[in-house]
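New to this. Help decode the following:
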Amino acid sequence: MKKCSKKNLILLSLTLFSMFFGAGNLIFPPFLGQNAGTQSLPALIGFLITAVGFPVLGIAVVSRFNGLDVLAQKVHAGFGLFFAVLIYLSIGPLLATPRTATLPFEMAILPLLPDGTSPQLSLLLFTSVFFLIAWLLSRNPSKLIDRLGKLLTPTLLVLIVAVFAAALMHPLGQPALPQPDYASGPLIKGFLEGYLTMDALAALNFGIVVSLNIRALGIDDDQEVMSTSMKAGCLAGLILAVIYIMLTLLGTSLSGMPIGANGAQTLTLAVTSLFGESGRWVMALIFLLACMTTCVGLLTSCSEFFSSLTPKINYSQWLLFLTLFALGVSNFGLSAILSISVPVLNMIYPMALVLILLGLGDPLYRDNRLIYPLTVFSTGVVSVLTELDTLGLRIPGLTQLLENLPLASQSLSWICVAIAMFGLSLILGRRKKSRR
């Protein structure tokens, strides 16, 4: 039985890291560090639990069940396919894929354009080239290790480490007192910020590509594929954690300066303070690489998944369609798409997290058929009602009931409901078993 070499495991981990590490992952930690100031350590610990822990667990669970749809079928046979399609659509062509092109344009390219340049035309030209490159890199999904792990990701890491090293040699300032949100309960605040990255959904998507690249190395044994996937997920999580620590410390050194509107401004301030105006070009390259690698990961995983559902439409055809769709949305309909896809993501994300946690403990209650449906469906009901309330649609009686639950002010009341229903289903399952 062939096993994965250490070199290939490292390259696979770098590839997986690059698929996770997009623009949002780049700008969240510096902003957290600048706002948390002297409370950066507990805030960072909370952030790492959710921003690194959940994605690593997601990769492990998808590897164990050999696919998101198989895991979701534990809830109900019909639910498995429906939920998998919903996640792939929401995290892929309807949200994240178009944004991988628009975010680097808005954050890094637009500020560099001369006065009088048409933003709309510039966006069209930029996204056309961006998605052409992404399409070319995605044409052979089993070659991602060569294209991402050996080239793009090392370049991205070198740039980030170079910025951090420059900040160590030329400190930008001392940590200041935290902003009000971080002054009390910084660990919880960091936990919530990491939760908002929603990278656990990406982990559920990327599992299919990780397995494909492992098999492309000549590893065919299912147990070895699962074991290698888990190892790669853990190592990718470690790399993520190290980069998050660097970026958070970078932001912490700026906590005595005026707080920007977002993490992109914080990072730009740091880079331009270290490298002058040429730092804007460094920023542009970092954003481009981070978003390109994530875009490739999303295109390949979504194309692989949908081609597995449609025998008459192959991977290449799905890849072309999804690329062109993302190009169109990024130029002409991103705001409208976001108004739909973001609420949908907020509704399904808690269910995805519950599925991941249930999947981890599956051997302990494999014979209990109540746990998955009761826990996941109740979580879904609460998350839907919570998001409807956020959108201004209140359900008399139910909305007020949810508002009285613990963590309701953080839109996390689903946690209490999930724990309660998990416990109830355990009790009911044992009673049912004792009657036999």
In short: The mean pLDDT is 88. The chain has two domains: 6-332, 334-436. The two ends are 43 Å apart (CA to CA).
